[in-house]
Design a protein that fits this description.
With 505 residues, this protein is mainly α. The protein contains 23 helices and two strands. It has a two-stranded antiparallel sheet. The N and C termini lie far apart (84 Å).
Length: 505
Amino acid sequence: MFFGWEGVGLCSYLLIGYWYDRPSACAAAMKAFIVNRVADLPFAVGLALIFFKFGSIEFATIFPAVAQHGADTYALFGTSFSAIEVIGMLLFIGAMGKSAQLGFHVWLPDAMEGPTPVSALIHAATMVTAGVFLMARMSPLMEFAPYTLTFVTFIGASTALFAATIGCTQNDIKRVIAYSTCSQLGYMFAAAGVGAYQASVFHLITHAFFKALLFLSAGSVIHAMSDEQDMRKMGGLAKIIPVTCTVMWIGNLALAGIPPLAGSYSKDAIISATYAAHTGIGSYAFICTLLAAFLTAFYSWRLLFMTFHGKSRASHHALEHAHESPWVMLAPLVVLAFGAVFAGWALNNWFIGADWEHFWNGAIFNGPQNQVMENMERVPEWVELAPLVLGLLGIGLAWVMYIASPLLPIRLAMTFRPIYNFLLNKWYFDELYNVIFVQPTIRLARLFWQVGDVTIIDGVPNGLAELTSDGSRQIVKVQTGSLAVYAFVMLIGVVALVGIFMLSR
């Protein structure tokens, strides 16, 4: 994957950092690279275990043989673990890094340093959704790893809620959308964890439309505002860039899950699936995804209101140059807007509706004990209505805080300063990782540099060279050119030899 879109993203960040003297772009690229390489290590081990267990890494060979190896175990740390569980867990850890799940998420917001089209490619499709696709495609194996699926559900649901809380306080327009991506990926993993792989991939597809739309719309806003990305310096742009405002309304409606847009089909299906799982971890995921649905509507419309409505907070210079983007930029937004509106309706019946078994045709496997797809159709009516109600409440709260009473957010931030700072600083994950990983690595590197490189590798040869040079400078002083000195030295040598000879007898 690194040599695909991940490579495009990395190269774009490095080029930006070089051309425009933006070290943060280079740092973002290297953080993304390092985090994904760390996650690739367990994935590679899992892939090796698959090869040694099944003799192949071809789906056609692996899937029919999974049941035969269901009782196989690995002895680790004095305990036996199911071989399928170990393989599934290793694959999922790799998926966590690629899809920026909790703990491996730190690279995703920093990817905003790249150009907006690259952000749209990375966040809406290709790279970050690779982990979700892996879990769904490996469903014939994952169905025999129930403990791993429980962990997948926990991480996915926790990520959905965690990222949504952070998105509520960010002020960079692209960073808000980035945390939204992280949260929506959590939804997808929560669905896969409870066995609704079809709903997971369905949300992957619909999310690609409205998230790419939101990113490119944000790029249009930034273009109009002379590269300004801080929403606190925007406002009242709806009249200046009406087309961008309209398509961003559509993207936010889809993201908030308002019917009949695409997000309402796929996201509501995931929430219903977590309830229909009828398990403890499913209930946990149900609560997390409902809360995340409320927060998603809030932060997405916070972004909309702060950017396009209310009183303008933009600088005089920015307003003088503010203008609608050319149609070469707007045309893709219009196309994506149609997808954000109609993709859910068009694909629902195939992906999770009556024809899902025929549509997937074995590409996704549900074990005999997995009845979540059937149970989704029989959830109580309040479960189906809850996401819409919470979404509307989130939108209403955003309107109250950023249109009706714009000073309310400031008062709340001052009243609940510790909580606000906690969310604004992204739960202090960057600071925590800096203490745990970055600073020890820097100290170790400095030790290797100053002791290993300078003192040993360079110091020993250089010291020997200096010793030889100093010794030669002293020895050449013996060559005085005086016959008297040479005769005296020879006499001393003869006396020494005679003395040694006498002592030895």
